[in-house]
């Protein structure tokens, strides 16, 4: 995980660099907010806020299932403390974890008719493309009303990466080899299927806590079996979402050839090459299932099993402690927003403590990025065409070609810095899309005030019929005893909406 205090608002941060827009609008948001406060603290605040929202969403789903205290605690634990969260944080996918935590809140708000809450959660989940896409699916599927508005909000929140992807369809394709490199992997004693059912199975073995490799993953399979006991109290739409998530991850594992064809043919399908991410769609269902567990001892058992899945999570996450990263501020000032080419510099660097992180210059300035990625000796992503052309031009000291490529600064492998007459690139469309994304909460507030984002007020029902009402007139005068009995009759309670009724709204 690499978050600089003051990242650059470069074309790459806006999705218009020479690589696919995989970190949009996340990088642009951090760059803008980093001008007011350290972006690293902004990221911390977002993570904490999303964790609180995830806990609230889980409790909301448990309350809908009429779960008691233990069931509610189990639902909250299942959402916050699971292998997906820990492994993705260790991988550096903090914005994806934010999206995963927000899915239960989106589902609970949608099922409860609080569309404006779901819209705000969908907006924040869209910090990352995968999060925005899954939030859109969850929001539309669970919306009881205003479904078209929900779809519109979700699509607008995804525009910062959709439009750059359409503008450069070739960069949105992935290689078939990437599917095998990012395939789900088996963890100790449970195999690949058991790992996925327990919300684990990330492709990178270095991002897996030690406990998952020595048998504690069995607790995840046991937890899955226990959660199935609450299936009668789980909204059917959440079960469908969970089936899509788990089923999609399993299908990608069993049918890699089909996924390889998709990512190499369909622009944007590369979002799913890391197919283990699909299991996050099951989080709302897991929370609702845990919230519906009866009796208390069963809910307590689910809570314990959830903790046992990753008992060493606090120790594993100590790797995320902040460290100082060196960036040459004089170079950043000299570049002044121009594109910088580093000659023969790797995309990943190793810190003094052995941790491997993304090159900080990729965030500190506008960098001509290679994008090449090798996993287990296999070239998964080839270098970008612009980077290759710039490297070749510098090898021939062809400054005219470098200028035509828009390269303003070259940093040679010996540290020598050379400038060209190329000017800084601007991405006005990227700025406009980022501004639109930042204004979504204002739009949600307007819709809320216009009555589009929540329940309409229900007309109160009378507690009973008065003795002179229609029935009294039809039947003539009523005795005091009869009238008293009619007045004492409780009001008819509104019909409980479950199953098909709730799903059809």
From TrEMBL:
Protein name: Uncharacterized protein
Keyword tRNA-binding recorded: no
Keywords: Membrane, Transmembrane, Transmembrane helix
Span list, region Disordered: 454-505
Membrane-crossing segments per the record: 41-62, 69-86, 92-111, 118-142, 148-167, 179-202, 214-231, 238-255, 429-451
Comp. bias (Basic residues): 454-464
Organism: Corynebacterium halotolerans YIM 70093 = DSM 44683
Superkingdom of source: Bacteria
Ranges of Gly residues composition bias in the record: 466-478
């Amino acid at each position: 995980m690499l978050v600089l205090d003051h990242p650059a608002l470069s074309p790459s941060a806006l999705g218009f660099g020479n690589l696919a827009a995989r970190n949009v609008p996340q990088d642009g948001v951090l760059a803008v907010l980093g001008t007011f406060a350290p972006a690293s603290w902004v990221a911390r605040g977002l993570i904490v806020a999303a964790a609180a929202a995830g806990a609230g969403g889980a409790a909301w789903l448990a309350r809908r299932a009429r779960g008691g205290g233990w069931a509610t605690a189990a639902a909250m634990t299942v959402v916050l403390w699971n292998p997906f969260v820990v492994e993705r944080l260790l991988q550096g996918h903090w914005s994806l974890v934010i999206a995963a935590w927000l899915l239960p809140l989106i589902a609970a708000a949608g099922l409860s008719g609080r569309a404006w809450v779901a819209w705000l959660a969908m907006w924040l989940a869209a910090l990352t493309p995968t999060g925005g896409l899954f939030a859109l699916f969850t929001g539309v599927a669970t919306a009881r009303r205003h479904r078209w508005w929900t779809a519109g909000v979700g699509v607008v929140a995804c525009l910062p990466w959709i439009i750059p992807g359409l503008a450069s369809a070739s960069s949105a394709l992935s290689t078939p080899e990437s599917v095998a490199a990012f395939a789900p992997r088996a963890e100790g004693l449970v195999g690949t299927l058991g790992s996925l059912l327990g919300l684990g199975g990330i492709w990178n073995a270095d991002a897996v806590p030690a406990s998952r490799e020595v048998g504690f993953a069995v607790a995840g399979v046991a937890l899955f079996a226990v959660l199935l006991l609450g299936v009668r109290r789980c909204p059917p739409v959440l079960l469908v979402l969970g089936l899509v998530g788990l089923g999609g991850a399993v299908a990608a594992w069993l049918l890699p050839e089909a996924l390889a064809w998709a990512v190499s043919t369909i622009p944007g399908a590369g979002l799913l090459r890391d197919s283990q991410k699909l299991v996050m769609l099951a989080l709302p269902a897991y929370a609702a299932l845990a919230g519906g567990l009866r009796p208390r001892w069963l809910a307590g058992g689910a809570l314990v099993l959830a903790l046992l899945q990753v008992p060493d999570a606090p120790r594993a996450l100590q790797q995320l402690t902040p460290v100082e990263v060196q960036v040459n501020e004089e170079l950043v000032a000299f570049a002044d927003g121009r594109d910088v080419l580093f000659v023969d510099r790797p995309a990943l660097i190793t810190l003094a403590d052995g941790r491997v992180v993304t090159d900080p210059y990729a965030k500190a300035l506008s960098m001509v990025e290679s994008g090449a990625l090798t996993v287990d000796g296999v070239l998964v992503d080839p270098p970008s065409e612009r980077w290759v052309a710039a490297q070749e031009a510098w090898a021939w000291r062809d400054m005219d070609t470098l200028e035509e490529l828009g390269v303003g600064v070259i940093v040679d492998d010996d540290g020598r810095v050379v400038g060209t007459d190329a000017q800084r690139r601007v991405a006005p469309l990227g700025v406009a899309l980022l501004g639109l994304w930042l204004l979504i909460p204002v739009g949600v507030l307007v819709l809320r005030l216009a009555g589009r984002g929540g329940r309409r007020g229900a007309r109160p029902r009378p507690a009973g019929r008065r003795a002179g009402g229609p029935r009294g007139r039809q039947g003539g005068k009523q005795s005091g005893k009869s009238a008293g009995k009619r007045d004492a009759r409780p009001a008819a309670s509104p019909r409980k909406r479950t199953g098909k009724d709730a799903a059809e709204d």
